[in-house]
Prior knowledge:
Residues 37-314 form the Pyruvate carboxyltransferase domain. The protein is an alpha/beta fold. 38% of the residues lie in helices and 19% in strands. Strands 1-2-3-4-5-6-7-8 form an 8-stranded parallel β-barrel, surrounded by 7 helices. The longest helix is centred in the first third of the chain and has 22 residues, at 151-172. 3-methyl-2-oxobutanoic acid binds at residues 46, 109, 135, 184, 186, 218, 220, 222, 253, 255. Magnesium ion binds at residues 46, 220, 222, 253, 255, 285, 289.
Amino acid sequence: MANRQQPSSMPIQKYGRYEQVDLADRTWPQARITTAPRWLSTDLRDGNQALIDPMSPARKRAMFDLLVKMGYKEIEVGFPASGQTDFDFVRSIIEDPDAIPDDVTISVLTQAREDLIERTVESLKGARRATVHLYNATAPVFRRVVFRGSKDDIKQIAVDGTRLVMEYAEKLLGDETEFGYQYSPEIFTDTELDFALEVCEAVMDTYRPGPGREIILNLPATVERSTPSTHADRFEWMGRHLSRREHVCLSVHPHNDRGTAVAAAELALMAGADRVEGCLFGQGERTGNVDLVTLGMNLFSQGVDPQIDFSDIDEIRRTWEYCNQMEVHPRHPYVGDLVYTSFSGSHQDAIKKGFDAMEADAKARGVTVDDIEWAVPYLPIDPKDVGRSYEAVIRVNSQSGKGGIAYVLKNDHKLDLPRRMQIEFSKIIQAKTDAEGGEITPTAIWDVFQDEYLPNPDNPWGRIQVANGQSTTDRDGVDTLTVEATVDGERTTLTGSGNGPISAFFDALGAVGVDVRLLDYQEHTMSEGASAQAASYIECAIGDKVLWGIGIDANTTRASLKAVVSAVNRAAR
Ligand SMILES: CC(=O)SCCNC(=O)CCNC(=O)[C@H](O)C(C)(C)COP(=O)(O)OP(=O)(O)OC[C@H]1O[C@@H](n2cnc3c(N)ncnc32)[C@H](O)[C@@H]1OP(=O)(O)O
Ligand SMILES: CC(C)C(=O)C(=O)O
Ligand SMILES: [Mg+2]
């Protein structure tokens, strides 16, 4: 077949390609993530530095408290040397005895400049557990353009910065602070692997990690530059070549420039990373940091405990929106307004069948649905696990089919429509959505349903209304039925006989000129207990029409008579 694509007119000659790693014996593709990594939230640093309007102290505190409540144990709380706001915030949480739980380590970022390092370490006085995080760029364009130095010059910045952090920590922090150190060769993604390794080794030679003295080496995709697979190769390569690996916490810090930060983080974990740095909902520079919520929920959805509490995801979102003054996209994984909602017919059909099958399976096994494996098509997780209801799982518009509409009636009104009745009613809804466009709400669906099938006692429509009925069965099993009714506005008594109340009623209706035959009949209870209502569905041939009727009543015979009346009146409508 001819290729009909056209070459674009965009200037592709401007861009180079990322380096691939010579790692034919890579092992990460076989790996599985079976436990949660260490998480570090950098919402208050990398997230905050990317806001048009950085967080006020109150917003910072709300974010910090949220992160603690969710269960993050490592939180980068700012860049204290950036100015008074960050410095004061760090001081405020250290000085508030209730702010930082004993098992939470705060960390702060600094450039490798002595005045900034001194101010940074100073901000941590009195902290129980604190990490200083030092960075300098190591990639070629930064060496040439930003630092205007050789490889050795750049390595020396990292070494000197590490030494200064150690000296100031020694000088300014007492024994009360459990002190930790983290180093990031910034733009690791563009740095030659052997040079990134050389710098990290030089930093370690200075810091001297060992038993009880961990170093965190954080390898940032400051700008995401390659496929996640090459990023993973780079992690596997570094993990293999780093000395003192058992004293190194290897950390991944993806940004989302190519839209693959989540995959980059996951593949890096498969390739040996121990820790992930990111922000809630992917806040951060440019396209954002990797989204910690998606990563955590991806684990959860595979039955791996993320060790972070996402059970009230909307509360997390509300606090996040307040702190960042931004909105979460309606399609954002796990949290967006629309991510548990289906509009389209085939999705809705499958979802309804999935819920029904789960219920049936649980019933058959004598357990609750929470005890069996989640298997609802199109819903990767149970929305209830993150505090959502099933209300919005199905929304109906012109793309919807019978399954979705039936789901709404079952979920909201306990009416389990027979399949052919679903088809009949969905055509009525389809005609409405096609004519009016847009979405039809569950309330409007119910209004249409009542108007179509369930005459309102205050505003009865149709030829026939029935009041009380009485039936007797003789020794031969023949039912005789007497019903008080209104036919064409006139009160009358209808009498008929047959081999059951429905056929007796058909017989009685013959007397007022209604020719009706039974095609299908189904009923179910709508609730448990003494006041339980029953729903009866009846499919009839009335003259040359085939249609359904429904009746709802505490008494099943009355429900079935009402269903017949519903069908007969619809035929005459
Ligand atoms: C990828 C990241 O997210 S890195 C974190 C970035 N975050 C931030 O920068 C937020 C907070 N930063 C700030 O508020 C300011 O940058 C400050 C207050 C820290 C410093 O401000 P300034 O002193 O005006 O310096 P500025 O930020 O412009 O830095 C540029 C200078 O620092 C040098 N520099 C940049 N990064 C580093 C580093 N990591 N280590 C050492 N020097 C560095 C540059 O080469 C440049 O030096 P030059 O002036 O000799 O050319
Ligand atoms: C400071 C470093 C770790 C950073 O945020 C980045 O490189 O993206
Ligand atoms: Mg970053």
